[in-house]
Amino acid sequence: MREAVRSGRLAGGTRLPATRVLAADLGVARGTVAEAYAQLAQEGWLTSRVGSGTRVTATEAAVMVPPPKLRLPSAHGRRLRYQLLAGYPDVSAFPRARWLAAARKALAAAPSQALGYGDPRGRGELRVALAAYLARVRGVRASPDQIVVCTGSTQGLALVSQVLRERGVTSIGVEEYSHPVLIRAVTSAGLTALTLSVDDDGAAVGSAGDADAMLLTPAHQFPLGPVLSPQRRAEAVRWAARTGALIIEDDYDGEFRHDRRPVGALQALAPEHVIYAGTASKALAPGLRLGWLVLPEPIVEAVAEAKSAADLHTGSLEQLTLAEFIRSGAYDRHIRRSRLDYRRRRDELVEAFARYIPAVHVTGIAAGFHAVATLPPDQDEQEAVGRAAARDVAVEGLGSYAIGHHSRGPALVIGYASPPGHAYTTALTRLCEAIASPPAPP
Amino acid sequence: MREAVRSGRLAGGTRLPATRVLAADLGVARGTVAEAYAQLAQEGWLTSRVGSGTRVTATEAAVMVPPPKLRLPSAHGRRLRYQLLAGYPDVSAFPRARWLAAARKALAAAPSQALGYGDPRGRGELRVALAAYLARVRGVRASPDQIVVCTGSTQGLALVSQVLRERGVTSIGVEEYSHPVLIRAVTSAGLTALTLSVDDDGAAVGSAGDADAMLLTPAHQFPLGPVLSPQRRAEAVRWAARTGALIIEDDYDGEFRHDRRPVGALQALAPEHVIYAGTASKALAPGLRLGWLVLPEPIVEAVAEAKSAADLHTGSLEQLTLAEFIRSGAYDRHIRRSRLDYRRRRDELVEAFARYIPAVHVTGIAAGFHAVATLPPDQDEQEAVGRAAARDVAVEGLGSYAIGHHSRGPALVIGYASPPGHAYTTALTRLCEAIASPPAPP
User: Fold this and answer.
1) What pLDDT, in 10s, does the model give residues A278-328?
2) pTM, two decimal places
3) Window from B5-19, B120-134, B143-157, B280-294 with minimum mean pLDDT
4) Do A289 and B309 touch (CB under 8 A)?
5) Taking CB atoms and an 8 Å limit, are B70 and A312 in contact across chains?
6) B96 contacts on A by Cβ (under 8 Å)
7) Is there a single domain that holds both residue A299 and residue A403?
8) Which listed site, A219, B177, B262, B270, has its alpha carbon 20 to 30 Å from A37?
9) Domain span at residue B118?
């Protein structure tokens, strides 16, 4: 069915048979069909609506959209009880028993040499599983040979930046608001960051001036939230083709789309010009330190060599475990569950703000697990952060993510995934109180 | 008992009570005492000899000695059936079931936040376990706060080199024969490698000229095999104290001492001048990618920052698993078993050479799991490597480890740990044939 949608045989809007009808046609259990529909809907290929059945999602030829990234909270913020920092998934939901079962199975099946020194690109088992997964869920076009497994996408970006620098790249366009860890990776390698402005269509890819490369979060701009529009995508790809430059696509939370139509990877439009960076940190747990790069063929060897020089290769046991976890479907199931939970949390956040502080506008909520709350213009961002901290709530101001000048009005970036479920409502209430309360007297 | 030996209360040569006597005195099982004696003997504190009982080992005030490191075989060598490359432990003996049991226990005990982003130095559980283990087994003086867990000691060395470079170090003394991966880590960071000659007392630490730092393998020079002598140790430490320079001690196989008296870490002599680098790659499995640095307090923060920039931190689940593995005693037991096996293999190698090719002298056999075989002077090293390859045996010439000019006579570096037990005798026989057979006609 994916192939039929991709190739156009099943046109957007086509209504699919009811699950019971298709199950009877195929001679399988109805539950099987329902499960397949649910998975395809999660991936964005199908859209279900009560009363109108299941239809093929209308997409514009492979042009879809992206989501946010890790925040290292300040030492201060870490000690607070209610953590509302962007980039932190709900690790209390980590499927420990299933992960251990995958580890057991993977280790039982692994040849001894899997425990020795290995390919700097990572284990073949995982690269095969990732190539299939990324093609299916994110539309990424990759062969396992083009994948380099890293200890998180931070390392991936650091290695890519280093290779670009060695190849003569000196400047890179980055979004005017970005994750500081990414900017550190880029600038540590000796690249100069040039800022790209961001609007409702995502990064203004034409504003990079003479940058030799670009770093984008197309599916869900971090932290502001817009999707890179189809026009901007086309423009970015044309720029890369014209100049021979490479675009790094940071697809940190690409699986977590709540509202809009599916947003595929930019990489699918121009695999020869886009370096795709993904991670298990948002979908599963940051503590795993597992990420991956999908690279244009001409730079695979250089990046593998940089990986080898950095740490030879990523640990094999977790790689084999993740491969088994993906293959068994446990990864898809965990993401589906997480997405439902994050959507519920997001809805609760939107409702709480609408009820208690209607003057505060919440944006960037179509995907992922963070949102941006624009404060009344007379509020000071840092004072609001301080009032939240006084209520034991850790949250960041938008200014913490400004690469250059913080040119926008006061706003908070709210990560809503990390408080445990039982503490979430309290965390929201305290945050609303902090925003609503008048600034403390000097 | 360790404390008593360390403090001198139990002098070297002191005869200990027989196990049955001490067991009766203490009211414990005789097996418990025997187990304790065996562990202390493994660590080098005690020496057992048939007929003379168990005695406290005579040591010269904390001056002991070290062991070898990873070899990335050529693409060619990798395909051969019998792998006799230095730096590869016997991964077929990896204790899979015990490792999984430790993973299960560790994951059950871990708080949720252990799955999130963490301290760049690594998990506290592992740093505490390592500090105790390294003090006990290697005499290393460290608090958990000074330890940075890395994805292997290659990364550790790369990070340290980077920090040294940032602090103005431009040159580093390295042993004239070393592992190429270490030299790559050092030079990639922008340091110039100056070679130190190596003799039977280890590296000639006075020959570094104006080097700003030194990289040594004191316990077991890699690949030649000598221990750094007490005089050289004292000289190295005096040099560091006089110049304010730092010494990096690569203790890659410090646990695998076969013959001599225990060889402690150089770090114990001057913790403020020595960076100690250890790894689980030799003791357990390279595929784990787990290593650690013990750092002088003034550079801990800079190295932790470099680690954070490189990949934030090492994966938490394996760290927790290794912590549990060490704490439970499984790490000690695995090392004890491996050491017995390696010693048996070494003895078989020495006997095979003595029987079949008595003209070939084997050295560097007091520790670890590799040896150096000096070929007759009319043999060409690379031809011998080629003849071995023709017999499906992968082995390296000493020249592969020469940092500068290969100034010594022809020799082979033989790693004897990696063939599975059942294939080992065949591998040795084929290697002896290759060395003994005349060069093929041109």
Assistant:
1) 999 999 999 999 999 999 999 999 999 999 999 999 999 999 999 999 999
2) 0.84
3) B5-19
4) no
5) yes
6) 107-108
7) no
8) A219
9) 105-328
Residues B322 and B361 in one domain: no
Cβ pairs bridging A and B (under 8 Å)? 144
Is A100 a member of any domain? no
- A30 versus B14: the higher-pLDDT residue is A30
For residues A197 and A305, state if they share a domain: yes
CATH classification at residue B17: 1.10.10.10
CATH number, residue A315:
3.40.640.10
| Coil, helix or strand at residue B177 | strand
- Measured between CA atoms, how close is B97 to chain A, in angstroms? 9
pLDDT digits (tens, 9 = 90+) for B44-63: 667 777 667 888 776 433 22
Q: Does the beta-carbon distance from A112 to B420 stay under 8 Å?
A: yes
Asked whether residue A242 is domain-assigned, the answer is: yes
Residue that finishes a domain, picked among B328, B357, B373: B328
Note the ipTM here: 0.83
Between chains, do B289 and A315 touch, taking CB under 8 Å as contact? yes
Q: What is the DSSP string of B339-378?
A: HHHHHHHHHHHHHHHHHH-TTSEEE--SBTTEEEEEPPTT
**Which of the two residues, B408 and A439, has the higher pLDDT score?**
B408
* Residue B442 located in a structural domain: no
Question: Quick one: B288 and B343 in the same domain?
Answer: no
Contact yes or no for B158 and A309 at CB 8 A: yes
- Cα dihedral across residues B374, B379, B381, B387: positive or negative: negative
Q: How does pLDDT run across A140-164, given as a tens digit for each residue?
A: 999 999 999 999 999 999 999 999 9
Is the same domain home to A164 and A258? yes
* Substitution target from B79, B150, B312 for chain A, most A beta carbons within 10 A: B312
Query: Which run of H or of E encompasses B319?
Result: helix B316-327
* Extended beta strands in B39-89, E state: 46-49, 53-56, 82-83
If asked whether residues B289 and B421 sit together in one domain, one would say no
Q: How far is the first Cα of chain B from the last one, in angstroms, to the nearest whole number?
A: 63
Which among B152, B285, B315 has the least Cβ separation from residue A289?
A: B315
Domain membership flag for residue A61:
no
Question: Rounded to the nearest 5°, which phi and psi values hold at B370?
Answer: -145, 160
Give the DSSP H/E element, type plus range, for residue B293: strand B291-294
- Cβ within 8 Å, pair B96-A114: no
Determine the distance in angstroms separating the CA of B100 from the nearest CA of chain A, rounded to an integer: 7
- Which of B328, B347, B377 lies at the terminal end of a domain, its last residue? B328
Q: Let me know whether A163 and A238 are in one domain.
A: yes
In this structure, the answer to whether residues A338 and A305 fall within a common structural domain is no
| Position with higher pLDDT, B24 vs B302 | B302
Q: Which of A113, A289, A311 sits opposite B312 (nearest CB)?
A: A289
Which residue from B116, B287, B318 is facing A118, i.e. has the nearest CB? Answer: B287
Closest by CA position to A305, among listed A141, A152, A166: A166
pLDDT > 60? residue A123: yes
Handedness of CA A186, A187, A191, A193 (dihedral sign): positive
CB-nearest partner of B188 from A152, A158, A309: A309
